[in-house]
Structure formats: structure tokens, C-alpha cells
Specification:
- This protein is 40% helix and 22% strand.
- The protein contains 8 helices and 12 strands.
- Strands 2-1-3-4-5 form a 5-stranded parallel sheet, sandwiched between helices.
- 26% of the residues are buried.
- The protein binds calcium ion.
- The site of calcium ion (CA) has 5 residues, from loops.
- Calcium ion binds next to loops.
């Protein structure tokens, strides 16, 4: 099991490194938020122990960036300030647990073991537009209760439209966000993908959800007529 410790106080990080190593963990230490985030994004860690007050980037910002990048690595927050605000903020940002400094090692180890037993936090997020449902964790789409067989790219396209439902999205924005490339005004790939998506999402159903916005692009929304 690999544990990444992001902590700027040398005494604390040395104490964590020693204690965790003695208990069979592989430990990596970063002393500031930027290095910590870099390490958190690049290496397969089983758990991250994250201090709040850090140079360069605070623990909240590291956690927010990590979750925004879609990483569900469990995070144990270390906070020196035991205010309710800190705990709530940490948990809202997607921390799995927190511990107030100073803590004793046995207590930390108990928390670490509990988190690892639980596995990564995977909050089911379901996006809904009319009778269309997207489960973004299981990558599953259904319409009126029937499963839609989508490719990964089709799912990504539909998810992007669903996250911004009722908002007309330009072809350029969709291409950049879903394909991560600039199509240089040749939107053939996008148009073909939309046509395929419509054949699965809309064609079998009376109510259409994907609409063309003339001169702009597309919008996913429920319309009354
Ligand atoms: Ca600190």
C-alpha cells in the first residue's frame, strides 16, 4: 500500500513516514502543495494524507484540483484547527476523513485502515434530462428505463451536453471539450458523432432531446412540443 504524505512540518512528516513504514506502508512525502498535487496526479497512491496549511497551494486547493481531475484516491485531512468550518469544507471538497492535530499515531493508523477498507469514495452522480439518465460513475445511460449502448466517446459527448443542459453549445466548444482538439472548422467528425448519438438517444423515442441550434451548435433539453 502506497501512502502519499503532503505535509510541510518536517517533524510531522518524519513521524508519519517512520510509523507508516514500520506498519508495512510505502511512504512518499511532499513538503508543499504544488509538488504534492503533482505527485498525487501522477502516481498510483492508495491513500493521501493531506495537511491543510501548506506552502504554494493549500490542502483545500490540492484536494479540489485532485477531485476535479476525476481522481478518487481517498484523502485523510490533517487539520490543526478543529473548527466545524474546516471539517465541513474538507468533507464537502471530497475528503474521506479528517484528523485534528496533534494526533497520536495509533489513532491515525486506525483511521488509515478504516479508509483503506472502505475503498475509494465513488459518489454516484446521476444526470437527468427528461427520461434520460446518465450514471457518470458506472458510465451507464438509460432512456425511459432502457439501457442505451453507447461507445465511450458517445457517452462523453452526451455527458458534456447533459452537464450543460439547456445551454446552446458551439461546435468549437464541444470539439475542444470532448475531443480535446481543435477541428479547425471541419466539424465532420462532430456531426457524424451527433448523428450516431441521435440514432440511439432520440430516434427510438417520440420526444427529441438533442436539438440543432442554427448557426451555433447543439443543445440538450426537454422541449414541450
Ligand atoms: Ca502545515
Amino acid at each position: 500500500m502506497r501512502v502519499l504524505v503532503i505535509e510541510d512540518e518536517l517533524k510531522t512528516s518524519a513521524y508519519l513516514r517512520q510509523g507508516l513504514s514500520e506498519n508495512g506502508f510505502t511512504v512518499e512525502v511532499c513538503a508543499n502543495g504544488e509538488d504534492g498535487l503533482h505527485q498525487a496526479l501522477s502516481v498510483g497512491n492508495d491513500l493521501i494524507i493531506l495537511d491543510v496549511m501548506l506552502p504554494k497551494r493549500d490542502g483545500w486547493s490540492v484536494l479540489a484540483a485532485l477531485r476535479k481531475a476525476g481522481r478518487q484516491t481517498p484523502v485523510l485531512f490533517l487539520t490543526a484547527r478543529d473548527t466545524v468550518y474546516d471539517k465541513v469544507k474538507g468533507l464537502e471538497l471530497g475528503a474521506d476523513d479528517y484528523l485534528i492535530k496533534p494526533f497520536d499515531f495509533a489513532e491515525l493508523l486506525a483511521h488509515v485502515r478504516t479508509i483503506l477498507r472502505r475503498g475509494p469514495a465513488r459518489q454516484a452522480e446521476v444526470l437527468q434530462v427528461a427520461d434520460l439518465q446518465l450514471d457518470t460513475v458506472r458510465r451507464k445511460a438509460t432512456r425511459a428505463g432502457s439501457r442505451l449502448e453507447l461507445t465511450a466517446k458517445e457517452f462523453a459527448l452526451l455527458e458534456f451536453l447533459a452537464r450543460r443542459q439547456s445551454e446552446p453549445l458551439s461546435r468549437t466548444i464541444i470539439a475542444e471539450q470532448v475531443w480535446d482538439v481543435n477541428f479547425d472548422s471541419d466539424f465532420n467528425v462532430l456531426e457524424v458523432a451527433i448523428r450516431r448519438l441521435r440514432s440511439k438517444v432520440d430516434d427510438p423515442f417520440q420526444k427529441k432531446l438533442i436539438h440543432t441550434v442554427r448557426g451555433v451548435g447543439y443543445v440538450l433539453e426537454e422541449r414541450s412540443e
